[in-house]
Amino acid sequence: MVHGLDANDSHVYDQSRQTLFIVARDSKPGKTHTIEVSLSPPLTPTFEVNDFWSDFGPRVLALLGVLFGVSAYWFLLILRSHKL
């Protein structure tokens, strides 16, 4: 569905290329065209797109935990060696 075309404007949808061609007859310099294209019925997503944290969050947190543990261990060793 194409909305916002003037009376003299036209559009053609080429399904084989999945391309919408719009020809605006008023092509004066500075002329602004606002066209809204929508699908009826609307598309439904076929899959859910993951993000970084849902894919790698547990691994990143585990790595940070290990790094924190190793850092704390070395810090305690350094403190202990200075007390001796």
Features:
84 residues; alpha+beta; two-stranded antiparallel sheet; two-stranded antiparallel ribbon; 4 strands
What is the count of DSSP helices, taking H or I runs of 4+ residues?
Answer: 1
User: Assembly type of the shown chains?
Assistant: single chain
Which structural class do the helices and strands define?
A: alpha+beta
Quick one: how many beta strands?
Answer: 4
Neighbour order of strands in the largest sheet: 1-4
Query: Which blocks of ≥5 consecutive residues have pLDDT under 50?
Result: none
Series of secondary-structure elements, N-terminal to C-terminal: EEEEH
Helix content percent band: 25-40%
Q: What is the first-to-last residue Cα distance?
A: 80 Å
Describe the sheet with the most strands.
Answer: 2 strands, antiparallel
Number of domains: 2
Mean pLDDT: 90
Radius of gyration over C-alpha positions, nearest whole angstrom: 30 Å
Shape: elongated
Strand content: 15-25%
Please provide a written account of the structure.
By secondary structure, the chain is an alpha+beta fold. 38% of the residues lie in helices and 17% in strands. It has a two-stranded antiparallel sheet with strand order 1-4. A two-stranded antiparallel ribbon has the order 2-3.
The gist of it:
The protein is 38% helix and 17% strand. It is α+β, with helices and mostly antiparallel strands and 84 residues long.
Topology readout:
Elements: E1 2-3, E2 10-14, E3 19-23, E4 36-37, H1 52-83
Antiparallel strand pairs: 1-4, 2-3
